[in-house]
Amino acid sequence: MQWNTDRRGFLKAAGMGLAAAAAMPRFGWAAEGDTLRLRVGADFQVLDPFGIIGELDDIIPRCTNVTLVRLGDMREGNAVRPWAAEKIEWLDGTRLAFTLREGLTWTGDFGPVTAADVKFSFERIAGSDSAWAYQFEKLKEVEVIDDRNGIIHLTEAFAPFMVIALPYYGGHIVCQKAVEAAGGSYTTEIPAQCGPYLMEAWEQNQKVTLVANPDWTGEKPAFGRVEFYIVTDDQAAQLAYEADAFDFTRVAVGAASQLKGAMPEGAALIEAASTRYAWLTINMNAEPLKDIRVRQAIQYAYDGEAVLAGAYDGLVARSTGVVPPTSGYARASNLIAARDVARAQELLAEAGAEGLEVNLYALTDGTSQTIAQIIQANLAEAGITVNIQPTEEAAYWALGDKTAGEGYKSVELVLMNFAGGIDPTENLVWFRPDQIGIYNWSFFDSAEYEDLYQASMTEQDTDKRRAMFNRMEDLMEESGGFIFICFEPYLAIHDANLVPVILADGHPDPVAFRKA
């Protein structure tokens, strides 16, 4: 594998391409041949499913590893189909039997993919400190019948297990022998691969290249080569796309009107509802925010309409929580549904917090910085000074991580957004008490919330589940630890003779991309 961390050549080429973007039309694109070029917003950090963090962390294993099942496009209902499993079926409410396809072989002479690999992959995450342990919370064990057959045993009936645990993140199957030989885990170099593609090269913070796996016996991908170009800024990515730097990219929501008015020649636009949810974390453990009246003052000072108009071009409504409106389980409204600056000022005075000054951390992309600036202006009207702290991706995800030191206890405000899932429990899981110091950066700690979460996992009645989810979001808002912003619309542009597949988390599935 080629490893290249020199940025100079890349930056020179990128500068030339972006400078020329406005002047030159798109020309013949690579996906007409055998290469698919995709833009992503950040480099990968951890490829081991145990420690996956960001977008590319999960996209690469979708290409280089297998999962028992695979999801279809989110715009077409997230259909589930067998993938590494030749057959998979529920024997009853707590037993899920699978048979692996023949011909799945690990690189590095580690032999075939086996049911023992499935057992190792799932059981090392279940009950661990992995962020994805929730996927296997109802896992009792994986029983190995023989090399290709096994039975997944659950502690309780949990129908969403198929779409929560198996298709991605912790569901990626790893090679037991290879991982154990590597010391039990890995980060940037996969010790054994089995997928339609193999890692060929990594130019850090610039580009990742995959090539077709010659030993792959499954469904052949449409392209022999996939190149991921890492461009953090959406506007820069759009210009680079117009300069023919790649074939697919997400774009900023604010670009929707411009693109609809004048699409680049030969391009198509994807505009869809998504499960990606944005919110403002208010850390109730941070000293200036320990008084609930102070946190509520921030909630009252927030102007949701201004944020939606300024950052999202009015394309979406304010969210009432982290459960998507498309799920049928969302709350009817926020408890604090309207802005009230006078009430915010009263609460600050009651708490003796006049002249409050706080730090707001946000990623460096244009949308995040626009939201941060609007929040800064909102809170200033109530007498709160907000210092915006633009933060690059790697440092950002360390902010609330207890393994990175004691700083997570005192981070004050953080603008956050997560890729959502299909079942509401996938979005609500991050705010449980055991996620404090992992992804629960508000220090929200509610026993009632945890009880409701557990009950919702096995409840079969839709109305009862909805009531549970709504109460959980009430508890979040009542804590003063959250301001719900929106479910971000999904916008992307791509070459018109390319058919993309976008999964439920909003990430592309390169394996399923095809030519129109």
TrEMBL record:
Coiled-coil spans in chain: none
Domain Solute-binding protein family: 80-397
Pfam families associated with the record: SBP_bac_5
Family annotation (InterPro entries): Peptide/Ni-bd, SBP_5, SBP_5_dom, TAT_signal, TAT_signal_bac_arc
Superkingdom in the source lineage: Bacteria
Location(s) in or outside the cell: Periplasm
Gene3D superfamilies, per database record: Dipeptide-binding Protein, Domain 3, Periplasmic binding protein-like II
NCBIfam families xrefs: TAT_signal_seq
PANTHER family xrefs: PERIPLASMIC BINDING COMPONENT OF ABC TRANSPORTER
Protein family: Belongs to the bacterial solute-binding protein 5 family.
Protein name per UniProt: Twin-arginine translocation signal domain-containing protein
